[in-house]
Write a structure and sequence with these properties.
This protein is mainly alpha-helical and 179 residues long. Helix content is 68%, strand content 4%. It has one domain. It contains five helices and two strands; from the N terminus they run E-E-H-H-H-H-H.
Length: 179
């Protein structure tokens, strides 16, 4: 019995290469993300026009602040989509930043004094966890920026003071020559 190759699969009685299907799906996915970017850009333009129109009339600081924070959220989402188009991966740090700004916007819009203490405690816990996740994302090296050294290190850091390491031999010979 002949087994089919792992890189091919059958669909409607025809053979398709998995790479071709994946590449075509990535192209469609990129087109969807591009359409999302364009619609997000137009939404930002409309929101910016509405914010400037609200500033010309009687100023409601709560509404203007909510509109500005909403614009910042849209800008961060646009940045997230651009990063996705460039790298084909989601930046967790940017997504966490969007979540933090969204939660803070809701607190500002509804007012911290109008929220019950249970909801306020839950929001504080959520912001604490999002902040911790943002700190972890900031301190974790990304795989595309991480590189292995091409040659092994001449000595291990814990052997720096042993006389058999290269550094310490040179150090001891220099210090003996000075005496």
């Amino acid at each position: 019995m002949n087994k089919r190759q792992k890189s091919r699969f059958i669909l409607w009685g025809r053979w398709f290469h998995r790479k071709d299907v994946v590449q075509s799906m990535e192209v469609f996915q990129d087109l969807i993300v591009i359409l999302l970017c364009i619609s997000l850009f137009f939404t930002m333009a409309i929101q910016l026009f509405g914010t400037f129109a609200a500033l010309l009339h009687q100023v409601d600081f709560k509404r203007v602040t909510a509109d500005i924070l909403f614009l910042l959220i849209l800008v961060e989402l646009f940045r997230l989509l651009v990063i996705y188009l460039e790298e084909h991966s989601i930046s967790v740090g940017v997504a966490v930043e969007v979540a933090i700004v969204s939660v803070l916007r809701e607190v500002i819009v509804h007012g911290a004094l109008e929220i019950s203490w249970v909801q306020l405690l839950a929001i504080c816990g959520l912001l604490f966890m999002l902040g911790a996740l943002l700190m972890v994302c900031a301190r974790t090296p990304h795989m595309d920026h991480f590189s292995y050294p091409s040659s092994p290190l001449p000595y291990a850091p814990d052997q720096a003071h042993s006389p058999d390491s290269r550094y310490s031999e040179a150090h001891y010979s220099e210090s003996e020559a000075e005496r």
